[in-house]
Design brief:
Length: about 600
C-alpha cells in the first residue's frame, strides 16, 4: 500500500484516501463494481474548489462507490473511457472548473500556452467542449448507461446561447451532447437526488428533480411555467434572444423560480427551478467532507497551477449579490449568499496547517467577493418577493445587512490559531459595501474598522479591487458602482499606508470593449488613471461567455432589459485600440 507522509504531524495518506482513478486503485478497495464514474476535464485535485472532487465526495458520503477519470485521452483507442467498465448507476461529466473555451483561448481567440488545471500547465490535455466530446464517446461505448452532465460549461449552456468562439447561436448543450440530464449550478443536492432515484428504481423518471434540465418531445406547459422564444425564433431575431435573457436572469434571481421551457426543433428543453437557498448546515456538510486537499499522487513531481493558487486559501461563502453584468458567479452559485460556520472554517484552517509546505501564511480567506460573509436580507419575506439581479446596484438595498463584524471576528479567530502567522485576503474587495452609509452607526463603525484592519493586517503587498471602468454610462451597463467610490477608497487606502509606514499597492482591475464602451470612454479612462498615477497591469479585453447580460448585449446589439440598441466594439481593430488605451505609458 502506498503511503505519503504529511508535515510534522507525521500524518500519512494512503492511495485509498483519494477516490480511485484506475482499475488497480478500485481493486485496492476490494470493490467489484462502481456505482458512478465521474469524467472531468481537470486534473483530479481532492479539494473543495475542484468540482469533480466535490461531486465524488458527495456521492461517496451517500455510501456509493465512486471513481474519477481525470482528463481522459479522447484521441487514442479510448482506453481511458473503457478502463473502469460500466457503472451500476450512471456516468457523471464535468468539463472542469472553467468553460473550456475560456480556458483554451484568449479574448482575441488565440490559443493559450497554459492550462492552469492540468499537470505542469500542459495545454493539450482537454478537447474543446469536453462535455460534448466525453458524452458522445460514452454514449457510443455504453449507449444504455445514463450520462449526467454538470459544471460551469454545461450550466451556462443549458439553453440557447451565443458562442463567441464559433460566432454562432447554439442550441442547448443537451441537444449537442446527447446527455440524459443536465445538473446546473452547484451540483451536490441534485446529484444526490439523481443517485437516490436510480437506487430506488432505475426505470423511474428524473424529470421532476429540481435544478436539472432535460430534453423531451412531450412537454406539457403548466400555469406558472415560462415559455421562452424558441431556438429557431432567436436565430431569426436577435431581439428575441435578448428578451429571453431577461426572463432567464429574473427567474434565476428569484427565491422561488418558475420552470422554464424552450422549444428547439421538435423537442423542448425543460429547466426545473433550483432548490431553495442552502442553509449554513448544508454548506458546512459539503466543505467538511473528507478531502485530502491534495492532488492525486499520480501527479507527484508535477505542478498544477490552479492548485498552487488555492492550496492555502479557504472559501468562506458561496453566492454573490453583486450581479455584475459580465460575471457568471451569481448565475452559477446564486444571488443569495450562504456562509459557512466559523467552526467549519476554523477546522479547514487547521487542516491546511498540516500540509507539507505550509509556512503559516493563508493566501485568502474569501469567496466570490472578499467581504460578503454572513450578509443577507434582514427581512426574508422581502427577499422572497424580489427579482433584482443585484442587491447593491443601482443602490444598496435597504433590506441588505452589510455588517462586517462577523467577518472581523472570523479574521481574528483564524489569526489566533496556533501556527497561523498571517491571513491575507486575495479575493476582490467590494469597496461600495465598505463605504455605504447605513442607518445603524454600529454597522458604519464596523465598516471603518474592517477597512483599517484589512489594510494593515491582511494585504500581502497588493490589494485587488475591481472598478472595471471610469465612465458612468459604461459602469451602469456593467452594474458597477460610481468610480468616485473607488477614488474615495483609494484615499483611505493611501492615508492608512502613510500613517502605518506601509508600502502597499492598490491594484484596480479594468475591462475594455465592454458593451456600451466607445473609444472616447477608453480615452477618459486613460486620462483619469494617469492622473491617479496608475500604470495599469490587471486589465482584460471583454470576452463574451455564455449566459451573461454583457454577452447577450454584445451578440444581439440590444440591452436585454430595455431592448434598446447598444454599441459594442467587435472588430479586432476596434478591440485592440480600446485595449491599447490602458497602456499609454508604453507609447513613449
Amino acid at each position: 500500500m502506498y503511503a505519503f507522509a504529511i508535515f510534522a504531524t507525521m500524518k500519512e495518506y494512503r492511495i485509498i484516501d483519494w477516490l480511485p482513478t484506475t482499475k488497480k486503485e478500485v481493486e485496492l478497495r476490494d470493490w467489484e463494481e462502481l456505482d458512478v464514474i465521474v469524467f472531468s476535464g481537470d486534473a483530479y485535485v481532492d479539494h473543495p474548489s475542484f468540482g469533480a472532487a466535490v461531486i465524488g465526495r458527495t456521492l461517496e458520503a451517500e455510501g456509493l462507490r465512486v471513481a474519477i477519470v481525470p482528463q481522459p485521452n479522447w484521441r487514442d483507442d479510448l482506453r481511458d473511457f473503457k478502463k473502469l467498465g460500466r457503472p451500476r448507476l450512471f456516468f457523471a461529466i464535468s468539463g472542469g472548473c472553467m468553460d473550456s473555451m475560456v480556458n483554451k483561448y484568449t479574448a482575441n481567440k488565440r490559443l493559450r500556452s497554459e492550462d492552469a488545471y492540468t499537470p505542469d500547465g500542459r495545454a493539450d490535455m482537454r478537447p474543446e467542449y469536453p462535455v460534448i466530446v466525453y458524452t458522445k464517446i460514452l454514449k457510443e461505448l455504453w449507449a444504455d448507461v445514463p450520462v449526467i452532465i454538470g459544471g460551469i460549461e454545461a450550466s451556462m449552456r443549458r439553453l440557447t446561447h451565443y458562442d463567441y468562439w464559433q460566432d454562432s447561436l447554439r442550441r442547448s448543450i443537451l441537444c449537442d451532447s446527447g446527455a440524459d440530464l443536465l445538473v446546473y449550478g452547484m451540483g451536490e443536492k441534485p446529484i444526490i437526488d439523481v443517485a437516490r432515484r436510480f437506487l430506488a428504481d432505475k426505470s423511474s423518471t428524473l424529470h421532476d428533480i429540481p435544478q436539472t434540465a432535460y430534453l423531451t418531445q412531450n412537454a406539457e406547459q403548466g400555469g406558472n411555467d415560462i415559455s421562452l422564444f424558441s431556438y429557431e425564433e432567436c436565430l431569426g431575431d436577435k431581439k428575441k434572444q435578448a428578451a429571453n435573457f431577461r426572463r432567464i436572469e429574473e427567474e434565476s434571481n428569484k427565491y422561488a423560480a418558475a420552470r422554464i421551457l424552450q422549444q428547439t426543433g421538435n423537442r423542448t428543453v425543460v429547466v426545473n427551478p433550483p432548490y431553495p437557498t442552502w442553509t449554513q448546515e448544508d454548506l458546512d456538510r459539503s466543505f467538511d467532507l473528507p478531502y485530502t486537499r491534495l492532488p492525486h499522487p499520480k501527479y507527484k513531481g508535477k505542478r498544477i497551477p490552479a492548485y498552487d493558487m488555492i492550496k492555502f486559501s479557504v472559501n468562506i461563502h458561496r453566492g454573490c449579490f453583486g450581479g455584475c453584468a459580465f460575471c457568471t458567479i451569481s448565475a452559477h452559485q446564486g444571488k443569495f449568499v450562504v456562509s459557512r460556520s466559523k467552526e467549519s472554517i476554523m477546522q479547514e484552517v487547521k487542516m491546511i496547517r498540516e500540509l507539507p509546505d505550509f509556512k503559516g501564511y493563508l493566501s485568502d480567506l474569501g469567496g466570490p467577493s472578499a467581504n460578503m460573509y454572513m450578509m443577507r436580507g434582514k427581512n426574508d419575506a422581502l427577499c422572497h418577493s424580489c427579482k433584482r439581479p443585484s442587491c447593491i446596484h443601482p443602490a444598496i438595498c435597504a433590506n441588505l445587512n452589510t455588517d462586517h463584524r462577523p467577518l472581523l471576528d472570523l479574521y481574528r479567530s483564524v489569526d489566533a490559531i496556533e501556527g497561523i502567522k498571517k491571513s491575507f485576503i486575495g479575493s476582490g474587495v467590494r469597496y461600495d459595501l465598505l463605504l455605504h452609509e447605513s442607518k445603524d452607526p454600529a454597522v458604519n463603525r464596523a465598516a471603518a474598522e474592517y477597512m483599517h484592519e484589512l489594510i494593515i493586517h491582511h494585504v500581502s503587498g497588493r490589494l485587488k479591487v475591481a472598478p472595471e471602468h471610469t465612465n458612468a454610462h459604461v459602469l451602469e451597463i456593467m452594474r458597477k458602482p460610481s468610480f468616485r467610490l473607488f477614488e474615495t477608497f483609494k484615499k483611505i487606502f493611501d492615508k492608512i499606508n502613510r500613517e502605518q509606514d506601509l508600502n502597499q499597492q492598490l491594484i484596480p482591475y479594468f475591462i475594455s470593449s465592454h458593451p456600451g464602451c466607445r473609444m472616447e470612454d477608453m480615452k477618459e479612462l486613460a486620462d483619469i488613471t494617469r492622473q491617479l498615477n496608475f500604470r495599469l497591469e490587471q486589465v482584460q479585453d471583454f470576452t463574451p461567455t455564455p449566459m451573461t447580460l454583457s454577452t447577450e448585449a454584445w451578440y444581439t446589439g440590444y440591452h436585454p432589459y430595455t431592448l434598446k440598441p447598444l454599441f459594442s466594439a467587435k472588430t479586432q481593430k476596434e478591440k485592440l485600440a480600446q485595449r491599447d488605451s490602458f497602456f499609454w505609458y508604453k507609447k513613449g
